[in-house]
Amino acid sequence: MGKVLADPRDGSGRYEVRVTGHLDGRWAAWFDGFSLTPATDGTTVLAGFIVDQAALHGVLRKLGDLGLPIVSVTRADPD
User: Under the phi-then-psi rule, with left for phi > 0, alpha for psi from -120 to 50, and beta for the rest, what region is 19?
Assistant: First the structure.
């Protein structure tokens, strides 16, 4: 199986989403295997690969359903 490459035309790529509050690591499965990293500033960074814009909106919708304020959404460098 080959390496999955990010394509800016369809929105795929690695993303980091920072939310207010700390999410326990057990939530990672609900967020399709994203890594969840609590930060010392009281936020959590969710990081993972998004296949397209619809998938990104799905992650953001899940965060909204949990009532977590979104601080930032960043498309990370593919490296």
Answer: beta
